[in-house]
């Protein structure tokens, strides 16, 4: 399973609540995730390379959270926070609707015969009028990749 590292305080700020490590571990368990490790950049360097190598490294607490391989929506802070807030019933699940393009030209995804033998089903979406801040752009860039669902 993929593991993401998030700064604890940023996560709690986005969730609107401060948890103890044990409380957050339990929340993860209830949601089907695993809080794999509570650490910091400094602790990681000390563990991997020795105490002397960690001089100047950040002591900000980080959570390493295991994410199921089929949940790409949870691979960034924004996605995980949305998922947890919906789970906690503090936010409604997002509603997405299909909108025809203004120019009327619908884009199509065509699966060639050679691809259909390996991947017979595919889903695609075109997102328009989206604005990213620097962090959102980095998150999108780091997590976008082809997703395969088996039906």
TrEMBL record:
One of its GO terms (cellular component) is phenylalanine-tRNA ligase complex. One of its GO terms (biological process) is phenylalanyl-tRNA aminoacylation. Pfam families: PhetRS_B1 (PF18262). GO terms for molecular function: phenylalanine-tRNA ligase activity. Coiled coil: none annotated. Residues 1-90 form the Phenylalanine--tRNA ligase beta subunit B1 domain. This is Phenylalanine--tRNA ligase beta subunit B1 domain-containing protein. It comes from Biomphalaria glabrata. The gene is 106071196.
